[in-house]
């Protein structure tokens, strides 16, 4: 099987609804520093069920898009700067807090059948899973992924920024654990 | 449980050396390097550690810690691809794994991915180096749209991929 | 002890924003970003932590953890240079600090170093990127001499440095 | 002041006696993966007094050049390979163990006066310090460095491979410690 495209809504630096893709057998993601490349990888990881602490966020609400608004009064010095750079005040605290978001992966299995995996964050911070549009429990969702050989617990197919060198020098215990998870 | 573990271990052990050779061979060193796994205690393998050893071409046997940044990256990729050969996930997502690699090693990785990417083994590779991303079948370009303060994407199919 | 600490802190606090602006300003964002230090507990500063905040140009105030790899690198270099302005060591040795940087940021770092390197502030910079090392005054090339199984070096003065 | 050149003897991948430099106000060190660039930085760090555990080595003897010899019988499969690649058996265990090594930094202070800092590892693993050719105790050696504003404890002027991103996101406690050390 393979990943065909991604649809995101208010996920990290991706505001509103956006379709990303299509992806081919060898697709490269490019762009300047801070553009949102690793956030795209976070979106793929999120939709597969990876926890938010592995996505550079302390809680799920950090994964929802937040606009330009200044948060604390410590920023008043910064706010002045933002205004004089002509940045509009986009987001007040209220809007940001009530925003929901999701990531949907459109996947094609080995027989060419399309599957849709969707993971969303509701406005009160709950997480919902949908498989081909129908709401399901996490275990059912993860089973469907495992049937496609996507073992999220082992995560040997996701290499986050900066992790590659540690993989070669991981401890023997960790390597055993990884092999155990895939066997 | 022991049997499953042992199957995985011996499969990976059987593949790792060839994959590492494919990644490290060059005109200067046509044989490439050497890599293997060893069990710290072969009585009860799943209780103990698996040690990974990799030797770049023409270098002596040394602790993994003493390898250079680029040498470690190549060894790590070989290990990941060897594990994949046992348990093939449909796709890989790699985020700037080429950061520590010199141009020669970037080219080796790019060629390896081109040779192995197919309908059942998809690669999504984030990279800042043109010598890697120009080898891809398509590009997903990400930019920041300052007006709306958001990331935006566009895709581009690279025609010469059919080469 | 408190006085010494406070002197260092307020000196660095006074310099960090300008250095970060010098490193992050561009044609698109002539003003650059914003950076400052804050004390978690200003009663007894040397007992508590100093928090570092950096905001890339046109971005909102965010936790350092949420910055991208390249954004963190630029913020880190600004901090190091600000600390250096208080306690100037005669030289810096930087090992592939440009690994996570895109071409635009590599150029900014290269220009910053060129502008600041002098008799009293020497830079020795290990890099794989030609857009950085071609800006240097001289190169130290390291290669592996296979015959004797050893590293060897040669130096090269770049003529056009006087530009 | 500034670093003029380095003289190394049997340090890491640098066999025998080698002179490295001269260094200018902005010198860049280049070369392929595994050539010995970071080992050069380790040599500079070593001569300033940085401990070997920060130089990717568990003990000082690891810092001495070791040639091609194969160590354990586990390598016999590898040894066969080495021989057929035409690698000569260079180093037996005995020679490697008795080898000594050193790093000497030729430094020029602000008045243009030359100073030589030398740190060596004797064949039985002891460390010696020499200042302008004369053997001195570590404290005297470190004092001479501090007079040149080289504060090895703070190490804020040495950025090892892979460390740069952690500097920006270090904990507030660590940042305080660093500022304490330079004040
Ligand atoms: N919830 C959010 N809402 C809006 N923006 C966010 C959110 N979380 C993170 N960001 C922004 O996303 C940016 C980082 O994006 P990302 O890490 O994807 O960059 P990148 O393209 O990988 O860059 P690099 O090449 O430097 O690694 C940061 O500037 C951060 O402020
Ligand atoms: N004591 C030693 N004797 C001989 N060789 C050694 C010794 N210690 C380390 N080496 C070798 O030095 C090499 C690593 O060199 P180094 O880390 O300096 O490479 P580098 O040029 O920084 O590469 P990269 O660009 O990948 O970071 C390794 O291959 C290692 O085997
Ligand atoms: Mg990134
Ligand atoms: Mg290195």
UniProtKB/TrEMBL annotation, chains A, D:
Give the location in the cell.
Chromosome; Nucleus
Q: Which domain of life is it from?
A: Eukaryota
Identify its protein family: Belongs to the 14-3-3 family.
Q: What is the designated name of this protein?
A: Structural maintenance of chromosomes protein
Please tell me the species this chain comes from: Bifiguratus adelaidae
Full-sequence portion shown in this chain: 112 to 294 of 1352
């Amino acid at each position: 099987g393979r990943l065909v495209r991604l649809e995101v809504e208010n996920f990290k630096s991706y505001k509103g609804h956006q379709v990303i893709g299509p992806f081919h057998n060898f697709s490269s993601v490019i762009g300047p520093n801070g553009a949102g490349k690793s956030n795209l990888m976070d979106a793929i990881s999120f939709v597969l069920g990876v926890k938010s602490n592995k996505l550079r966020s302390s809680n799920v609400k950090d994964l929802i898009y937040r606009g330009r608004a200044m948060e604390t009064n410590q920023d008043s010095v910064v706010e002045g700067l933002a205004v004089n750079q002509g940045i509009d005040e986009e987001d007040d605290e209220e809007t940001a807090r009530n925003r929901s978001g999701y990531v949907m992966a459109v996947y094609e299995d080995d027989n060419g059948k399309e599957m849709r995996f969707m993971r969303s964050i509701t406005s009160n911070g709950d997480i919902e899973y949908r498989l081909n549009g129908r709401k399901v429990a996490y275990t059912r969702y993860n089973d469907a992924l495992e049937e496609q050989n996507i073992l999220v617990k082992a995560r040997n197919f996701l290499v986050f920024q900066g992790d590659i060198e540690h993989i070669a020098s991981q401890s023997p215990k960790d390597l055993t654990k990884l092999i155990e998870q895939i066997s | 449980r022991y049997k499953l573990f042992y199957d995985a271990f011996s499969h990976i052990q059987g593949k790792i050396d060839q994959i590492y050779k494919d990644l490290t061979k060059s005109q200067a060193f046509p044989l490439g390097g050497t890599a293997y796994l060893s069990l710290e205690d072969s009585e009860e393998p799943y209780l103990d550690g698996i040690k990974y050893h990799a030797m770049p071409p023409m270098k002596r046997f040394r602790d993994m810690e003493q390898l250079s940044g680029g040498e470690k990256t190549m060894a790590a990729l070989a290990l990941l691809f060897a594990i994949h050969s046992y348990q093939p996930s449909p796709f890989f997502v790699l985020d700037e794994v080429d950061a520590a690699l010199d141009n020669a090693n970037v080219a080796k990785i790019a060629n390896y991915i081109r040779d192995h990417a197919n309908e059942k083994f998809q690669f999504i590779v984030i990279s800042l180096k043109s010598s890697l991303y120009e080898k891809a079948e398509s590009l997903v370009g990400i930019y920041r749209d300052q007006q709306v303060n958001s990331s935006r994407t566009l895709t581009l199919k690279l025609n010469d991929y059919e080469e």
